[in-house]
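Hi! If you just cloned this repository, the fastest way to understand the data is to look at a raw example. We've pasted two of them here, unedited. The first protein comes first, obviously.
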Amino acid sequence: MRIEHIRACPMWQNEAPRYDCVFINIGSEDVGIQGLEVARIRAFFSFNYGGTLYPCAIVRWFDIIGDSPDEDTGMWMVRPACGTNNAPVYNIIHIDSIYCAAHLIPVYGRRFLHHDINLHNSYDSFHTFYVNKYADHHAFELAS
């Protein structure tokens, strides 16, 4: 058994924000990443309604690019989902639908990186990401 800490903190270790990415189980019969969604946790909260506690998360969705993994890397690619007028797509989900953490690698391109990009803002600085299937055994099984 394994415990995984998924974080959504506006100030992580008194340094900078940290908002982790996750795989979300959407109830699909498809196998692997095609049966899951990728999202970034923005906040955790809970509320009580009718005597029942509902633990929830606010997530920003990613769209999977294409119908198969990238030919060169073998990894699926995603980009932040956008709605009307390029507005980010957010939803509230029950935390039971979170399957596990996901690790995204930015698609860097051919230009030098700006000196202000670091591990705290890389998810906000890039528009396309690889879903890292080499992060651990579970990610390899899900994202292959």
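Ok, and the second one:
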Amino acid sequence: MNVTTRPNPFKTSVWIRAGWVALLLYVIYAASRLEITWARFLVGLDNGAKFIGRMLPPNIAQPDSLLTGLTESLEIAILASCLGILISLPVGLLASRNLMPVWATWPARMCIALCRSFHPVIVAILFVKAVGFGALAGILSLMVASVGFIGKLFAEAIEEISLKQVEAVRATGAPFMNVITYGVLPQVFARFVGFATYQLDSNLRNSTMVGIVGAGGIGGTLFSAFQRFDYDFVCAILLSIIGMIMLGEVLAGWVRAVFLERGKVEQE
């Protein structure tokens, strides 16, 4: 009786095992260098329990400040997302290597890489120094982050399209913009809507962080509450931020459903 032997899918070599051992040793070394100990973790749990006890129950001590901060964060996220998406469209198109020449793709990809190199908080600090405190610095910093994210994904989506449809439109003698409109965008529209809604959701979260460094939004209100030790108001602010993010997620899902359903109807 012949028994068919299947190869072991989890077979490892000596080098792979040595790599895992080296990684484990480095983790232990890094933990010792950073003073990560079990006793410190237990102390942190005790301090965290006391901190949560001081946060409960939540108290909206300054409703006007809370409402103003949430409204400003929402405005920053929407404006930054719209501007970032508008800029990402041509940048992502220029960065696509299957449609554009090398002299156009490299500068566009360098721009995308530069926008993705720093965290939005770091970019917000730079813009606060440049344009001063307020919502403008937050809008500019999140716009840069949007270009880095949307531009990269949009370029990759264009590079994955089928060129048969593009060549068919070109064969009709259509100009370049018609080729993009009828040969490229229909193939990437659904994915682009998903990228845009995700970036809006991301900007809603980041708009609360950039405010901590003076770039407007609810982050400034949160930082002020921490400085005053108004931890019950801090809890109210955090719950409000969670509510805003959940509402944004619901709206983003509705937008995706509407646009994707319309795209299916148009294709049929």
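That's it. A detail worth noticing about the second one: The mean pLDDT is 82.
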